[in-house]
User: What shape does this take?
Amino acid sequence: MSFFSEIERAVERGFRRWTEKMFGEAEADDLLLVHRAILADVGSKIQTAQRGKPIFPYSRLKVRLSAADEHRRATYAAAFVQDARLQSDVRDFLTGAGCEVPRSFIVDVEVVDEQESGFQIRYEVSPPAPAKQAPTAARLVVITGTTAEKFYSLTKTRTNIGRLALLLDRDQRPFRSNDVAFEEDGDDVNTTVSRSHAHVRHDPVSGEYRICDDGSQHGTRIFRGGRAIEVPTGSQRGERLMPGDEIYLGRACVRFELDW
Assistant: This one.
């Protein structure tokens, strides 16, 4: 792996800075060991084609991280799953090694409860053929709060969430419609949902769904694996959603679900 040492160090520096800021120095040291081992495993799969050109013949990686400790699993999820951090680092590593990485390259990370800590990687030559895949259906399920419907399909590139279905300006002209509308005359939970609270953005190229807070009064949070993730107020980047995420809009709650 000496050939890749400079590339690895460059990727690791960014990962260490980020994990130290998020988790502290001790946690960052442990995470870096796992991160380094994963990159080393990926690097061992790089092959040499004609004229010495390096190639990486796989377009999908399935990484399985295991730990018995709940705190360790939550840390793994935050460090490697959130914002597709591991996928970004693996892509940077392969690009730095001179490999052409396809736009469809995916690193799926699964964190599981097992007695023995460690990781496994499954390498796939190509993702399943689109014709054989069932259509992807994303939806929000209302858990707490009063809305007209219980389920809302996310069929648009932007789905607005707020209180009232239609918002009017001072001149009684509509300026925003909410696809997921909490009732104005609902219970006390509904009053914590701002009229222009948040929106879910879907990127049809990457397939990602992200929740963005539109300057709400009581904030937007994601609960994932026992951990709360604050969605920055007014940020257009927002936070990436994962299946099973519970999204709190003030005190109201919706769950993000994704079927394959």
Q: What stands out?
A: The domain at 137-259 is CATH 2.60.200.20 (Tumour Suppressor Smad4). The chain is about 25% helix and 35% strand.
